[in-house]
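Let us begin with a simple case.
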Amino acid sequence: MRPRDPVRLRRGGIRGLGGDEGAAAAEFAVALPAVALVLAVCVAAVGVGAQQLRLQDAAADAARGLGRGETTGAVAARAAHAVPGVTLSTSRSGELVCARLGAAARGPAALAGLVLEAGSCAVDGGR
């Protein structure tokens, strides 16, 4: 009988020399939090983008309403219905009336103190 050799070839490596069993699981455990963080940031960015689009639509609607001669209060109420917590500022320049809306970002972006703004102008035909 031959004496047992402590070092024998095995699939994928040499037995007895500290092979790489479990290395994939360890790498996965290290990478998983980073992947989860990137995914969370992407989802938050999509949410901020959607809120910015709603804010821009509300600003365009507010400018058109002001251009038609609606009161600032009515326009502000409609904008607040579209985007909660919105602030409205208006300006007139020649034949144009402009509306600028601002609102704090919601969701995880609120932790960063992100404030979104949107503006739009329309012809002032209601004077």
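The second case is a distinct protein. As before, the sequence precedes its structure tokens.
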Amino acid sequence: MSSAAVEKKRVIVLGASPKRNRFSNKAVRCYQELGYEVVPVHPAADEVEGLPVVAKLADAPRAQLLLSYVRPELLLPIVSAAADIGVRRIFLNPGADSDELAEKIRALGIEPLRHCAIVAAGRSPSEFPDE
């Protein structure tokens, strides 16, 4: 498989939590079930759903899709790192969205998607149990 093909099936989950009741954790499980290679990013977690965690967005492998579960003020100063690793679309999930952030993302040539990444994948967060 080419590196471009791998990038298309890899998703970065920014703010991924080991707590199963968090939407970021449900997104990890959802996209795993959809066949994506999931890369959780969190500064303090070691593992999410059995996957090793990357501490910083800038250290994540190349991917075309990013799901953000962090407050806009946390993503604003690091969003350029997404462009540096090849991200083309960013889901700004509920609670992670702002007009200022969406504008900055557009300015980087990245498409902001302003809705729930789980629902956009045709699934429901309720399909992923809290325990």
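Helices lie at 3-8, 23-33, 72-75, 79-84, 99-107, 117-120. Residues 101 and 107 are 10 Å apart (CA to CA).
Keep these points in mind for the review questions at the end of the chapter.
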